Amino acid sequence: MTIQWWQILLLTCLAFWAIIDQLTVSIVNNPLAIGMISGIIMGDITTGLAVGATLQLMVLGVSTYGGASMPDFITGAIVGKVYAVISGKGVQFAIGLAVPVGLLMVQLDVLARFANTIFQHRIDTFIKENKPNAAARNALWGTFTWGFSRAIPVFILLVVGNDVVKAILRIIPAWLTDGLKVSGHILPIVGIAILLRYLPTKRFISYLAIGFIAAAYLKMPMLGVALLGAALAYLHYTREVEKLNTKQNSSEKVTESEEYTNEEGEYEN
Amino acid sequence: MTIQWWQILLLTCLAFWAIIDQLTVSIVNNPLAIGMISGIIMGDITTGLAVGATLQLMVLGVSTYGGASMPDFITGAIVGKVYAVISGKGVQFAIGLAVPVGLLMVQLDVLARFANTIFQHRIDTFIKENKPNAAARNALWGTFTWGFSRAIPVFILLVVGNDVVKAILRIIPAWLTDGLKVSGHILPIVGIAILLRYLPTKRFISYLAIGFIAAAYLKMPMLGVALLGAALAYLHYTREVEKLNTKQNSSEKVTESEEYTNEEGEYEN
Amino acid sequence: MTIQWWQILLLTCLAFWAIIDQLTVSIVNNPLAIGMISGIIMGDITTGLAVGATLQLMVLGVSTYGGASMPDFITGAIVGKVYAVISGKGVQFAIGLAVPVGLLMVQLDVLARFANTIFQHRIDTFIKENKPNAAARNALWGTFTWGFSRAIPVFILLVVGNDVVKAILRIIPAWLTDGLKVSGHILPIVGIAILLRYLPTKRFISYLAIGFIAAAYLKMPMLGVALLGAALAYLHYTREVEKLNTKQNSSEKVTESEEYTNEEGEYEN
Amino acid sequence: MKTNSNKLTKKDLFRANWRWLWASQLSWNYEKMMAPGYFYTVLPFLKRWYKDEELVEMMQMQSQFFNVNAFDGNFIIGMDLAIEEKQGSKAKETIAGLKTGLMGPLAGVGDTIFGAIIPTICGSIGAYMGLRGNPFGAFLWIIVNLIVLFTRFGFLNLGYSQGAKLIDSASGKLNAITDSAILLGVTVVGALIPTVVNVKVPFVYRAGKVTLKMQTILNQIMPSLVPVLLVALVYWLLGKKHVTSTKMIWFVLILGIVLSYFHILSA
Amino acid sequence: MKTNSNKLTKKDLFRANWRWLWASQLSWNYEKMMAPGYFYTVLPFLKRWYKDEELVEMMQMQSQFFNVNAFDGNFIIGMDLAIEEKQGSKAKETIAGLKTGLMGPLAGVGDTIFGAIIPTICGSIGAYMGLRGNPFGAFLWIIVNLIVLFTRFGFLNLGYSQGAKLIDSASGKLNAITDSAILLGVTVVGALIPTVVNVKVPFVYRAGKVTLKMQTILNQIMPSLVPVLLVALVYWLLGKKHVTSTKMIWFVLILGIVLSYFHILSA
Amino acid sequence: MKTNSNKLTKKDLFRANWRWLWASQLSWNYEKMMAPGYFYTVLPFLKRWYKDEELVEMMQMQSQFFNVNAFDGNFIIGMDLAIEEKQGSKAKETIAGLKTGLMGPLAGVGDTIFGAIIPTICGSIGAYMGLRGNPFGAFLWIIVNLIVLFTRFGFLNLGYSQGAKLIDSASGKLNAITDSAILLGVTVVGALIPTVVNVKVPFVYRAGKVTLKMQTILNQIMPSLVPVLLVALVYWLLGKKHVTSTKMIWFVLILGIVLSYFHILSA
Ligand SMILES: OC[C@H]1O[C@H](O)[C@@H](O)[C@@H](O)[C@@H]1O
Ligand SMILES: OC[C@H]1O[C@H](O)[C@@H](O)[C@@H](O)[C@@H]1O
Ligand SMILES: OC[C@H]1O[C@H](O)[C@@H](O)[C@@H](O)[C@@H]1O
């Protein structure tokens, strides 16, 4: 069985949409649904479900936290499904194909997240020049980096065939993919450092240390740290408000406040 | 061998006393001693000791913390001992009987602790009506809920026989006993919530959070939390006292305190 | 082969220096180097290296922290090397000898650290009497306690022979060596208690508790505690400085500070 | 207000000890645990020191949630008496805070010593003798218990002298002490919630090889999330009109049974 | 300054929700993560409230590092809008602090619920049905997703009402609130460093039987030492003249590749 | 008071370095550990800056309990000199606090680098060469040691410049700095107690199958309870009349032997 040009077009669009869907409305954000839809496009919904379901089981509970890149079995599902139908070799063959594709996508996911830093810098520049609309546009252009990161490889795979994946994986040197992974992990440092420069960090450096100690030494999860931070923030708040009141009292009603001091003892909540 | 009416009477009283003893003077608060005393009543001190000692080994170091209900092998020891003598089947038979009795007592212990909430509410009401003596009486009536929770089942067992235990255990549905256990565990919430409403919690809500974090996230035992609390309380105390002094100074001797500011540096402890 | 008197002299001096070297310049502070030097003195550098290297492997990464006494295989290396050459029985024989010597040295190390408390007390007394130079001398006399703690046993061993070690080890009762070890562990308490009396501990007792809780309950390492302490210290510092400023403001420019209060909101970092 | 004429005598302290010995746990209940025992113990003193409105207020304060080890918990009563003797009802909040702050640690220490160490030692000696028909171990334990009984009386007196010291050193600073005591109390209550309220969500989702333990997921969000939510719920309900503590206790009682029935909570 | 004439309507809140729904992650990038999405969402309001210099300042504040779970993160936007509506650019620092302080915990809770629990349950049901050729599970999941989508809109409104409450109760105390918000934010950033920056030193020294793991030794000195040093380095470099964030991003990018190449760092 | 005429020269700093190099550990003792070395190192400066009563006071402060890694600990001496140079004996408490606060972490870092990492690497290389009769590894280590020796001199100068910066930025705020330094010091001492005093109660109660480890029970009450009690005891005794530190050292020495003899304590 051969694939039709309109099928290629639809599947490429599906690949584009699948990643955008995950990033936005999250309606068909899983291998199962995408497998099913590919099945519909290819006219074989049962195999589509089977491929999608099998891939689904492999990623149960796996999710992207803090911007980490995960094997993308959603894109894998599209390609796997198609080849299963074309070759007629069934589900297991499809899986065997979907997995390397999913792994390849990790690299392209990293690349997309990199590429978007360009838009970030344009946003920063346009803001400085007070061009809000230009900045706003750049906040949306990521649509294409994300979308094409999935659509292009799927398109190539469907047109040129499977061998190209292996070739590409062979060409990209391991030191580069490893290096990009490390870079991806340490790049947030730039954002954090800018944030620290932006906030009046020096005045609150003690709390930076306390937050760090809680997370690094005591292994407290983020919500725990935030709870602690909120407790300390409220303490600070009460103290500041108290100071305000004292200042006002001391000017407005010196005599009264002294009486209060002498009275001492009557508790008020 | 058959049991005499005065033996039944004495053993029932012993069961009543045994639980009261644990709650108050704690002199014969263990299966060993109670086993021995049952032995004396039944005229066979050696078997009594053997039954008590065996049960004792089963509960070594088990103790009731925070109001949790434990298998009551003290009451078990009485019943077990008696049947060992009556049936003449020896220590192992006694143990086989004492254990289910001890487990049954868990339910009755829970019941007694429940029933006492009635006295609690009467106390609260009488206090509101300024009737201290009536309230005081209710603080002692628990004697009977506790005492009868042990005396009645022992009495029944001795008069009616062993089968009644099994029957009762069969009748009470598991969902009820399980449910009561859960209720017992969450009931202290009411007391704690009332306490939180009673204390000026809002002003010190940060410390509530800190105590919670220490116990829930950092698994600090209660003494550690209290130590931390004491450290924070002392910090607060010093700060408050300092404020008092500043206020007094600022009114009494404005000039002096300013000189002190300029002088700056001479350390005083 | 027999040993010459000048060799004994040199080796005794080496033993003296080896420990002083560790305490000061740390140039030949390891069994390997000392084994080699003994080898040179005995005219057999290869065996010296072999003995030193073998002992070196046994102490890799073992180091003295907080004043704990470790098996001293450096001194062991000297003795071992010598007997290997004298007896001609080779490296393994040397190791078999070096190890007990190293263990014996633990006791003598403890003794030296004890003996030095005498100098400490003399220093304390001379300081009280305002005799700085006398005090300073006592700060150096430890040279001899340390040096002789190694030199004397090596000398004896080389002159009298190996059996004396075993004899000595047999004579010293275990309860004494064990007891001295315990004493060594708890003696720092005196220094710490004096320090606590010296510092204005009462005012800062809360922080003593916080440091203790962090180390004892939360198992935080020292650098973590110090980080926490620094964070708290900086908080304290900011607060004190703020107080100073308030005092000055309140006297110098009462009106201005009030305007600031009313203005409220303009943030300044 | 406090009447200085009635200084506490040794007999008074003994009387407090005696009342605590008998009453501390007799009306122990799930809602306020040892509150009746505490109330009963200090009642004679409250009656001596306060009248009318003030008496009611102080009785109410003295019948709040309280739980401690019965053996060493009278230490707190000693402190309480020393402070109230000097400061009267002015110290109401101080006492409330101190009771709450000290009950936790004293429960821990007392349970370890009197609930674990002594019974384990006496029990194992006694049991091994008993198995051989020798009643000596059982008697020995009774003697130990009598000694312990005697010792218990000391804690209250110790607390009394500590409390007196505290209140003397702090004359003119009662506000500061009160605040600090409440601070300590509130901190301990914060730790009490995850410690005392011990329930789990037993629900496990299963589909094929996949199992999803609800409690594990809840722990990822926050440890002891369920106890916190329950306390928040009851706290909030208690603030509504017409909600009494009696209604709440029935509500929680039934809630527990229902949640247990549907396997949403388990002990 | 803020112009009271333009009170936020329901439509305004819906608009914010809508923009966040689409834009939150589209320009997600390694440097400032969801900053573009946040900026895009609040831009119409910024343009309405501020002009010229003030607008630039506020836009800059709203395009700082931000990362949250996309499903519940709009809660923060709701708070933000409520506060800015009342306080305008005076609240600049308050917003900066709140955003930073709340993003961490909301990420944690959102990721657990929307990233772990729901997909695991729906996914396992759907997959088992799908394996048997039954598309019902797949459709069910789509329906659940639509319900979730609907729910997401609620968080922003909830945040809005909470923010309004906060700012009302704190009238005349904005300084205190600002300080506290920043304090919270800085605390969370302190915890963010060891959490977000996940790199190890893979270097292992080996000689004969001896192995010395560099990361183990570094942990003995301080856990997360490398992330801390890297943040300190970048922070310090950013303070130099002629160092822009663009240069920094290239520097860190190349640094990562180089350090990885020499096996000094690994992901 | 301080005499500005004598500003510290490079030679002065070298002299301090030199004295510390030789004296730091020579009279190391169980009571105050490196106190003699510290005292000896700073003595020339004390004599230059202070006279009579003031000198005695400062010498006493400089001979308190001190323990650090000898390689990097001179950093503290550098800071000390910078501060004393500017502030003289007014900084007495500041120095006492700083010394106590910094010794702990510098010991940890120094011991890891100079006591663990370097010896392990040099030792394993050298040993493997040595076993094959090759002395090169041994020489290499000596060379490394010489480089390290050279490096050590840098820490004091680093400390000096940091101390100068600190004291400059804080002119007119010495009180605040002093307080903060002591605060840090006291916090570290709090952590020192359970870290430095490493003793266990080896007593195990056994009866039949029952074993009761005393140390386990003590840990349930409080971790490091024994060290805390011992410190409290000695602290209290030192407050008594006629109790000198000499008496205390003998007392603790004998106490250790006795408690070890009766198996109450073990190392
Ligand atoms: O962890 C919070 C958040 O981080 C990144 O933005 C992405 O990985 C999201 O999927 C995730 O929800
Ligand atoms: O845990 C403190 C305390 O709690 C409850 O009151 C009972 O279980 C006591 O036996 C126990 O001592
Ligand atoms: O632990 C710090 C320090 O303690 C003692 O002074 C000795 O054991 C040193 O070797 C060590 O560096």
UniProtKB/TrEMBL annotation, chains A, B, C:
Residues 257-269 have a biased composition (Acidic residues). Keywords: Cell membrane, Membrane, Phosphotransferase system, Sugar transport, Transmembrane, Transmembrane helix, Transport. GO terms for biological process: phosphoenolpyruvate-dependent sugar phosphotransferase system. The chain crosses the membrane at residues 36-62, 82-106, 139-161, 182-199, 205-235. Coiled coil: none annotated. GO terms for cellular component: plasma membrane. PROSITE patterns: PTS_EIIC_TYPE_4. It is found in: Cell membrane. Its main location: membrane. Pfam families: EII-Sor. Residues 246-269 are annotated as: Disordered. It is a multi-pass membrane protein. The keyword Membrane applies. It comes from the Bacteria. InterPro entries: GatZ_KbaZ_carbometab, PTS_IIC_man. This is PTS sorbose transporter subunit IIC. The lineage of its organism: Bacteria, Bacillati, Bacillota, Bacilli, Lactobacillales.
UniProtKB/TrEMBL annotation, chains D, E, F:
Its EC number is 2.7.1.69. One of its GO terms (molecular function) is transferase activity. It comes from the Bacteria. PROSITE patterns: PTS_EIID. The lineage of its organism: Bacteria, Bacillati, Bacillota, Bacilli, Lactobacillales. It is an enzyme of class 2 (transferase). It holds the Pfam family EIID-AGA. Keywords: Membrane, Transferase, Transmembrane, Transmembrane helix. The chain crosses the membrane at residues 106-130, 136-155, 176-197, 217-237, 249-266. One of its GO terms (biological process) is phosphoenolpyruvate-dependent sugar phosphotransferase system. InterPro entries: GatZ_KbaZ_carbometab (IPR050303), PTS_IID_man (IPR004704). GO terms for cellular component: plasma membrane. This is Phosphoenolpyruvate-dependent sugar phosphotransferase system EIID.
